[in-house]
Design a protein that fits this description.
Elements: H1 10-23, H2 27-52, H3 60-70
């Protein structure tokens, strides 16, 4: 495990300390879990983009028309 120094907004630090006390997890565990979740979401977005990058693009108006035709909106 690596050690790092992070500078947090005061309100974020306070919330993290409270969450740590409430859940009995260390602040490091909570921060690691949150960072992993955000990074995993980014990876999923990149994978989706790679799968769909060759799809034909459509304009906003075309998308809006399709959504109306489908009854989505």
């Amino acid at each position: 495990m690596s050690k790092a120094t992070l500078y947090l907004d005061d309100s974020v630090h306070k919330a993290l300390r409270l969450k740590s006390a409430e859940t009995r997890q260390s602040m490091s565990e909570l921060a690691n879990d949150a960072l992993k979740a955000v990074l995993l979401e980014d990876l999923e977005d990149i994978e989706d983009w790679k799968k769909r990058r060759k799809e034909k693009t459509i304009s906003y108006d075309e998308l809006l028309s399709q959504l109306k035709e489908d009854g989505t909106i």
